[in-house]
Amino acid sequence: MDWIKPKKLSVVEQFISLKRLYPAEHSKLGSKKFVWIGYLKSSPLGNSYKIKIDFDADKGPDVFVIDPVKLPLAEGKTGLEHVYNQQKQKLCLYYFDERGWNKTKPLSNTIIPWTIEWLYHYEIWLITGKWLGGGKHPPRKNTI
Amino acid sequence: MLAEIQKTQFEDLLIKLSTNLSITRTQHEAAVQSYKAVGKFLSSESSPLAEYEPYVKPQGSFIIGTTIQSIEEDGDIDLDVVCEFKRKKNTWTQYHLKNAVGDHLKSHGIYRNLLDEEGRRCWTLKYREEGLTNQRYHMDILPAIVASGYSIILESAFSNLANENYQELKISITDKEKNNYYVSPFPEEWLQSNPYGYAKWFMKKALLVGNQFKNLYSLNESVKPTPDYQEERLPLQRVVQLLKRHRDIYFSKEQNDDIRKQKPISCIITTLAARAYRGESNLLDAMWGVIGRMSDEIEFKYMPEYGKEVEWISNPVNIAENFADRWNDDDSYRRNNFYRWLEQLKIDLHDAENKTGLHNISESLSSSFGKKPVQDAFNQLGNEMRLLTENDKNNISRSLGIIGMATEELHDVTKVKPHDFYGLD
User: Fold this and answer.
1) Looking at the domain A11-128, which fold is it?
2) Which of B335, B353, B369 is the last residue of a domain?
3) Cβ–Cβ < 8 Å for B350, B370
């Protein structure tokens, strides 16, 4: 028996489902991309952060923490954990395998919960100096 | 006031914090081994005391589950034990009994070196395990005479908490400052103490959670020859631990030596907390309930010697004894210290509760309860969250953030699907 292949979601479908569940402070829909800017709270006792999602039909979502502009670092650390870019605070939320995001999955129940989870583990890291959210690191180029 | 879901998160944090204040299984096991070794030495065939059947048994916070870690990394943990005798030489006075124990301890190469200056009622052994942190404790050994069949009476008293006869658990102890110390050979004329009656009184209050007895902690287990480590704690036990810890941190910041040395004693905190506890099953409710009502549990009695009414915190198993008698010493800071500390605790707990941002909550709790147990609590929270996600059991509320499994009464819940954070850093 053939499994029904999950349907890829269009840019509009992604945009609508995201905005319906997560009101945006600012949003803009183009033909192949959209921007969503809004606030996410890490946990009931945690902080709120201003988040920007740049979605591109070809490349997928890029997620940035835009406020605070510079997230404080844990004691003795020189950079954030699990980010693609320290300055832009661009988050690495998933690995490119079947558990990660792909075009069949709505951002609203993958990327957003993972962003919230990232923020929570960021706050724990700030306190303990340890990233306890799990994850993978690519092999470093300079290691043999 | 915290919203319900915030309260749940704060409660979880507070429970972990109080758990981190408890002694560890390793510390528990080391302590048990140590007092068993003392007991064995005192009762061994070669011991001149053997014929009086000495037996060493823990008492105090160790059996009611309220012992806490020292605030210093390598500080001492308190361990109180009774060295009970079923009989003694007829002519022996308190002086003889006390010194029979002391002399025999001094005859042992190791104990002689561990032995501290003689106390008013106890001998103290200061254990110093080289190289291991938190393997340091001091054992207060209280020589005592017990009634015949005491261990059977004790077991039955601890099994039957409804029975309110505390007097049957009394023991006779020695007291260097008592006028008949060198004279009276009759234990019934010696100072009477009732550590096991007190333990029963306390546990009766602690075990009554809501309106039913919680079989979470066993006194009989606590006084077994080799008691198991009891990891679970009842809300009242946790409250007492948090209170004692806050006291230790608060007075460690005090510059004036005299004030610092007169911090509120544990038995006052424990007794007032137990009297003020109303069976709250939630730790945060229990904390606020206890600290709000504690000072109302202090009685006032007219004392002719002072010509006025003074605070009276009666020993629940010997109401003629006032735990606060020393508040009336000349130039005593004790009264002020107690009220000042209690007010500060309210301020500090309120402050921690009203912070936003885990980091700010952590800073606030750390300054009140110490950095290490607070950091460890956040560590445990972080690990639990990761495991929940890995096991496909984690949730977010769209408006409140990550909530774990506390999804009740929330209408904007989404599951967190298992995934892997990736990253170059």
Assistant:
1) Ubiquitin Conjugating Enzyme (3.10.110)
2) B369
3) no
Residue B64 lies in a domain: yes
From the list A50, A42, A46, A57, the residue with the least C-alpha distance to A24 is A50
Say whether both B184 and B253 belong to one domain: no
Q: What residue ranges do the domains of chain A occupy?
A: 11-128
CB contact under 8 A, A126 and B419: no
The pTM for the full model equals 0.93
Asked whether the beta carbons of residue A133 and residue B382 sit closer than 8 angstroms, the reply is yes
CATH of the domain at B173: 3.30.460.10
Same domain, yes or no, for B72 and B201? yes
**Which pLDDT score, from 0 to 100, does residue B253 have?**
96
Q: How many whole angstroms separate alpha carbon B391 and alpha carbon B400?
A: 21
Coil, helix or strand for A66? strand
Residue B383 lies in a domain: no
pLDDT single digits (tens) B42-99? 999 989 999 999 999 999 999 999 999 999 877 788 899 999 999 999 999 999 999 9
The full DSSP string for B10-67 is: HHHHHHHHHHHHSPPHHHHHHHHHHHHHHHHHHHSTT-TTGGG--EEEEETHHHHT--
pLDDT in tens, B313-341: 999 999 889 999 999 999 999 999 999 99
Closest residue to B402, CB basis, from A101, A120, A128: A120
